[in-house]
Structure formats: structure tokens, C-alpha cells
Amino acid sequence: MAPARSRARIDRRLAQRGGAVEFLRLPSALFAGLTRLRAAGYERGWLSRVAVPVPVISVGNLTAGGTGKTPFVALLARRLGARGERIGILSRGYGAPRGAARRENDEARWYREHLPAVELVQDPDRVRGAEALLERGVDVILLDDGFQHRRLARDLDLVLVDATRPWGLPPPNGGGAPVQACLPRGFLREPPAALARADALVITRSDQVTPRELDLLRAELERFAPGRALLRGVHRPARLGAPDGAVLEVTRLSGREVDVVSAIGNPEAFERTLIALGARVRTHRVLPDHHLYAPADLDGLGADGRWLVTTEKDAVKLAGIRPLHVLGTDFELVEGEAVLEALLDALPESDEEKRRNALHEGLHG
Known about the structure:
This protein has 365 residues and is an alpha/beta fold. The chain is built from ten helices and twelve strands. Strand 2, helix 4 and strand 3 form a beta-alpha-beta unit. The radius of gyration is 21 Å and the shape is globular.
């Protein structure tokens, strides 16, 4: 049975060409012009940057929507932690519930669960957030979704590009090239030429497109960001949580009819992952990114013995509403391993690391 989607999302409406949506071309052009002007302000020194005494690694993207940043940030945090670094993750906190005792969004709760040793701060003011992490003694700051937040200086800019939606929108119904436009007509936060200021580009979900599509994307990225290092990764299904807390093999999904609920940036990618594991998706209820769930959102799902499956990001918001199965994925780098290690090796030492190293040398001098 073909998957059924219960609600139209804005990305699906914007993906179509023609009609009233094309009136958004004018504000889109204005938005693109303003982003270019702002970028020029930083490049020419009209707008100042604030540097902090620890390395800052920005992990960002060009689009509004999911490119798989969270698993990639987790990969970086684990690699740097294995080097003995004290890691802090700094994010804006978009979608955090208002009025909560601890205003954290789904990504923050995912980080706390999967990276308990990492310091975490969410603050729309990235400079203030970085200062809070410095007070906690971190050696490296991972700036989650930081490509457009240029006020905080960074030592390394990594930009993720989703192979299934390079410019933010899916292909229109009936096929054809996806719309490539800035907000509000499209999902681009900046024109593609902004990729040229990245230190490296990381293609995510590269296993969900054909080799030809991947080659075309490589050529396009080279045109916008000539000479930039290009890495490639996939999101591997890693674990399947059961309603009773048990961890199952992901192969248990093979041949099983399931209902799916998600509120993430790229729900089609999650559905393709389930189908690749052999699951038969009966219904996929797609809700807006960072949606705060209510019990009614799950009405009609998981009937007749079907498993109700969601993502780990969604699961932290669904806790206590309904028992369900949770599919977790990890980011795996399949191309550019040596490049990433070289980029991390080239990071400067933090002031705290210098102090510790000097103390160590003094004790053994």
C-alpha cells in the first residue's frame, strides 16, 4: 500500500511550480540580496566578529530543514572526545517549548541522552552561549547550525548538503528539477554561492540517490565552491528501541507492516530508510519540523497490530504519550576520512589546553 501523508507541509507546496506561489519570487530576491549584503559586511570588516579562546567548529547548512546535522555533530563530539578534548555544543534552541523549566528542543534532549559527557548550551545569542561554555571549561565548541551565525568567529566551517534535497525542496510532483530559491519561495537561507566560504562540504544521505545524481551534485558543488574539500557520508540504521525498553536488531523491521510518525526536516529520507530495511509503510503521518506532539497527533496510528515507528528526535517528545518503536541512525563517513582527521589536527589549542600542557611539561621537566 502506498504511504499516506495526513497533512500537507509547506515544503511540498513550495516544491510545485506555477500558480500563486510564484509571487514569492520577489520577496525571495529581496531576501537573497540582504544576505549578500550581510555577507559583504563581514567579509569587508563592516560587521565585527567575536573570537573566543577555544577552537570553534561550525556545522551548518545552506537550507532550512534537515540535512542530518545532529548525527554528524555527535560524530565530531565523539572523535574529539576520544582525543581528550572537553566538548561543548552550542545551538540556538529553535522549537524549544515555551514555559518549560528547562527550555530545550528535541535536539538538545537527544544530545543529553546520547552524549552525556558533553556540555550543552542553547542560546539564540551565540556569543553569550559560547561564554557560558567557556565558564564550564570546554576545550572545543561545536556550533550546531552555525553557518549563517557569523558573529561568533570560527576556526572551521563544515557545511552539510543533503543529497536527496541539496537545495532544500523535494522535486515537484511529476518530476523535474527542484526549485532552487531563497526563502520564502524556496528553502535556501543564502544563495548557493555562499558555499564558497566553507572549509569543507559534507554530502549526507549519499546512499539514497543514484550514482548519476551524486555525480551531478558533485559537479554542482564544485561550481559553487571550487576547490573545497568534499566528504561523503550515510545515515546507518543503528538500533531499534522497543516500547518495553529493549533494543532490537533493525532487521526486525523486515517484512513488517508499520505506521510512521515524524516531525523532522526530511521525513522522506526517514521513510526511505525504513523501506530499505524491508518495512512496509502503511501510513506516514508527517508533521512540521520540531512539532510539539499532543496525543491526538497519533490518533488512528498503530492499529491492527502494526508497529508505530518514529525517529529518536521525535521519541524524546513522544515520551509518555504512546509506546512506540524508535529507529536510531548514526552518521558514517564513507569518503573523506583522512580529510576530516587533517582538519581536526589543524585546529589550534585552546588556552586551557595550553595551560594543561605547560603544567604537564613542568611536572615532567
